[in-house]
Amino acid sequence: MAIKEKKVEQKSKLMEILRKDYRWENYLFFTIALVVLLLGVLILNNTLVINEDAFLIGPIADIFAWLMVAFGGLALIYAVYPFFKPAFPEIKRITWLKGKKYFANVIRVFIFIIVLALLLLLFQAFITEILAIIWG
User: Fold this and answer.
1) Which carries the bigger pLDDT value, residue 83 or residue 117?
2) Residue 68 burial (C-beta neighbours within 10 Å; 0-12, 13-18, 19+)
3) Most CB atoms closer than 10 Å: which of 3, 45, 61, 129?
């Protein structure tokens, strides 16, 4: 009887480190990704201006800004993914409403929003009138 050899997979040490859940590092990574994304957007809006004489990125500021937005966005998604990963199996188990029941609930929500908005508008008018009487 022949003995089968088990195939031993070579695991990348880098991927093992990246897959571990380092909570504070994820927060730091999220913050850095958000800063990079915002800086890229500020450069694209010309709110943050890069001199043409700036070393390396001066002549290609727009390309640099688009790269910052792209890498910042990807890093943001990568930083947020571990927090939402446990929710995906739960979302698959949800049973959603169908047809008439769904639209009935939608109509109820819109009616509630309209009534609440009118009520707040009425309160604002009432308080404005009271304050106008008090302050003369």
Assistant:
1) 117
2) buried
3) 61
Burial environment of residue 43 by CB neighbours within 10 A (0 to 12, 13 to 18, 19 or more): buried
Exposure string of 100-125, with b = 16+ CB inside 10 Å and e = fewer, is eeeeeeeeeeeeeeeeeeeeeeeeee
Instruction: Extract long-range pairs of 115-119: CB within 8 Å, 24+ residues apart.
Output: none
24 and 83 inside one domain: yes
Domain around 70: 19-92
Question: Per residue in 90-123, pLDDT tens?
Answer: 888 888 889 999 999 999 999 999 999 999 999 9
Asked if 77 contacts 31 with a C-beta cutoff of 8 angstroms, the reply is no
CB 57 within 8 A of CB 64: yes
Task: Count the domains in the chain.
Answer: 2
| Any domain includes 5 | no
User: Do residues 39 and 75 touch, judged by C-beta distance below 8 A?
Assistant: no
33 phi and psi angles, rounded to 5 deg: -60, -40
Q: Sign of the CA dihedral 30, 32, 34, 40?
A: negative
